[in-house]
Design brief:
Blueprint: H1 9-26, H2 38-45, H3 48-61, E1 63-67, E2 80-84, H4 103-106, H5 113-121, E3 126-130, H6 143-151, E4 155-161, H7 182-190, E5 196-201, H8 209-214, E6 217-220, H9 228-236, E7 301-308, E8 312-313, E9 319-327, E10 333-343, E11 354-363, E12 368-375, H10 377-380, E13 382-383, E14 389-390, E15 394-403, E16 406-415
Parallel strand pairs: 2-3, 2-4, 4-5, 5-6, 8-16
Antiparallel strand pairs: 1-6, 7-9, 9-12, 10-11, 10-15, 13-14, 15-16
Helix pairs in contact: 3-9, 5-9
């Protein structure tokens, strides 16, 4: 571009000068390797404060998808636990795709899921292990060992999912079912009649319909990083009550993709499974397997007393929204309260529902707190056909819920013409 006289060389010189100035300030011309300090690296990797935060973040990232028989949290009086699956002992998979891939790191600071459970139960419970099968492949050579292992236990924890390099940059998959024969191993273990907890490790939503329909307890752990093992053990035994919510929609099958909660309105919605000449599939529901914003807790929460400060506002005004959240269960816990809006009519088509705000609140058993949100012009605005960020007058639906498909409280209001 300089040769074509589109950019003056002075502009290039100025950019280079700024970069060189910073290198001088950092002392890199005196010592190019000034910040390559092995001693400092080792110190930071073993910093207990960093470890503590990594463990907390990992625990908060876990999403509880099912807990129908209240198998979780596990009793600390549990005597024998069978820990089965291809994700139990490997360390690298816990780090996911975007991590430095050095063999020596595996043995230094990544806590495997097996180690995490060992750390948690100590000598109070007997841990049994069987791999069962590989993440990929079709060999069932380890099935019988896994079945024998399960038969000896009071509870079975099965850790399955994607290998660390199966999701990430340049890692698209046309088939996003559980890889290999992992789900077949689950079917065999179910026959033992033992209570089973499924841990699913992945970097994307996976399809696991049989497991979702037949297993009462499912925990989506994603890839949790260096403290994965300890964080998973914290959640399994109730030292941390899971509070994570799904940041995307989980499909029933690949044919539903793309699937997302904030899709546009359609002139022919499918209502009450009426699918004739409607926007629907003839062979499965239009709803996802697990919706955006979904995530369970070991406790339950009640939503009550929704109030709006106004029912009509001008663009210069705001609405104050308040509601009460009560912990109605048997454990202290955190809930992510989600506020959704629907613009009922506009100059361009609008989504059926849009997340506009959320708050995470911690409640002790029986405790009630008041949550407040503010609705202003910004939350009501969108890009019109001219790509201008505007708020158009009209009616809006307001929805408060625990997920995009679990709306607990509803109201409406109107944005007036100025």
């Amino acid at each position: 571009m300089v040769k074509e006289n589109k950019v003056p060389i002075a502009t290039i010189d100025d950019a280079v000068k700024r970069i060189l100035r910073k290198k001088f300030e950092l002392g890199l011309f005196d010592d190019p390797y000034k910040y390559c300090n092995q001693e400092r690296q080792n110190k930071e990797l073993s910093n207990p404060q960093h470890t503590k935060i990594a463990r907390e973040i990992a625990a908060k990232s876990i999403v509880l998808l099912k807990n129908e028989k209240n198998i979780l949290p596990l009793s600390k009086e549990t005597k024998t636990i069978a820990f089965i699956g291809p994700m139990v002992k490997p360390k690298r998979n816990n780090h996911g795709f975007w991590a430095i891939d050095l063999k020596e790191i595996d043995s230094t600071y990544i806590v495997s899921q097996w180690e995490g459970l060992e750390n948690k139960v100590g000598k109070t419970a007997k841990l049994l292990y069987a791999k069962g099968c590989d993440i990929e492949g079709d060999s069932k050579a380890g099935f019988q060992e896994a079945i024998n292992c399960a038969n000896q236990a009071d509870v079975v924890i099965m850790s399955i999912g994607e290998r660390h390099d199966m999701s990430g940059e340049a890692k698209s998959r046309s088939n996003i079912h559980l890889p290999g024969i992992q789900e077949e191993l689950i079917k065999e273990l179910q026959k033992t009649g033992k209570p089973i907890v499924i841990l699913i490790n992945a970097g994307r939503p996976l399809i696991f319909n049989w497991t979702a329909d037949n297993m009462p307890t499912i925990v989506y752990t994603w890839w949790l990083g260096s403290e994965a093992g300890n964080a998973i053990a914290d959640v399994l035994f109730g030292d941390y009550n899971p509070s994570g919510k799904l940041p995307m929609t989980f499909p029933r099958t690949e044919g539903q993709i793309p699937i997302y909660y904030n899709h546009f309105s359609t002139g022919r919605p499918s209502i009450n499974e009426d699918k004739i000449y409607k926007s629907a599939y003839i062979d499965l529901p239009t709803s996802p397997k697990f919706p955006f914003g979904f995530g369970l807790s070991y406790t339950t929460f009640q939503y009550t007393n929704l109030k709006l400060s106004k029912q009509k506002i001008k663009t210069s005004e705001t609405i104050e929204v308040s509601l009460n959240i009560t912990n109605s269960g048997k454990f202290a816990g955190e809930e992510v309260v989600q506020l959704y809006l629907h613009d009922k009519a506009a100059s361009v088509v609008r989504p059926v529902i849009e997340l506009k705000d959320f708050q995470k609140i911690k409640l002790e058993i029986g405790e009630t707190k008041t949550i407040k949100f503010t609705i202003d012009k910004e939350k009501l605005s969108f890009y019109n056909k001219d790509l201008k960020w505007i708020a158009e007058p009209g009616d809006f639906d307001l929805m408060i819920g625990s997920s995009s498909s679990d709306i607990r409280l509803q109201s409406n209001f109107e944005l007036l013409k100025n």
